[in-house]
Amino acid sequence: MKYNKSKIEPNKRFGQNFLIDKSVISKIILAMPKDILIVEIGPGLGDLTKELLDNAPRVIAYEVDERLCKYLNREFKESLDSNSLELRCGDVLEYWKDNGSLADEPYYLVANLPYYIATNIILKALEDSNCKGVLTMVQKEVALKFASQSQQREFCALSVIASSCGSANLLFDIAPEAFNPPPKVVSSILEIKKSSNFIRDGFDEFLRVAFSQPRKKLIKNLSKKFTKESLERVFNKLSIDTNLRPHQVVTRIYHLIYKELKEDIDGEKERDNQTGDFRKSRATSKKEAPKSI
Length: 293
Prior knowledge:
Blueprint (H helix, E strand, L loop, with lengths): L17 E2 L2 H10 L5 E5 L5 H9 L3 E5 L2 H10 L1 H5 L3 E5 L2 H8 L7 E6 L5 H10 L3 E9 H8 L9 H9 E9 L4 E2 L6 E8 L8 H8 L7 H5 L5 H10 L13 H38 L5
Parallel strand pairs: 2-3, 2-5, 3-4, 5-6
Antiparallel strand pairs: 1-8, 6-9, 7-9
């Protein structure tokens, strides 16, 4: 079955809003690197894909919608045959899960992400060692969370994670009219240039606790998981004001707090293990001791 571009309706199930404004596409092309493999998630009808192919050495596109896969296979037959474009049809998150990376070489992620999975995909990209950066269209609220700096109202756990991996910036806003259908919110172009990879190692859970109630003091939030003694020791050692709210603490300090608290937890676990081994040893000794005559 052949598909006419004008008759392909966006699918709400996949959160599709097709980018149709050529001026926005031009701005994205100007912002993207030109000397690296580009991975595109959600090519849709291929308007951005065409420009990516003209400005990148190679493009890998992931599309979950079977209708669009059939259309793109026909529309980009020449690029597919020349291997300048590779189209992978299926769930990009499943591909990440099965392969660990979206490509076997360094790449830059360019995408018009559905709002409902945007945050998850960006975090996956920050973990992916082959991904060197992200240039993506997301809901403005999400872009602000990743790009905000300490002292700004929107500064949150996602801001700390993004700044831990490199530099995050909101480049420009996109009006709803640039999409079909127009979303109910303003979108933004978010760029994250990576200098390192996001390694969870419990740090994301720590940040979730730290920002659980943004208006409360940081030390109060952390007291939900850590002892008062540990927190007072760490805050005193690092000379941190106990009256600070979560958004008032810089990324570097979050890493230092976590390192200190993690050492406390690891130390307690080690002591518990040693105590358990000692008790087990004593119990065994009593059991094996010869009966008195």
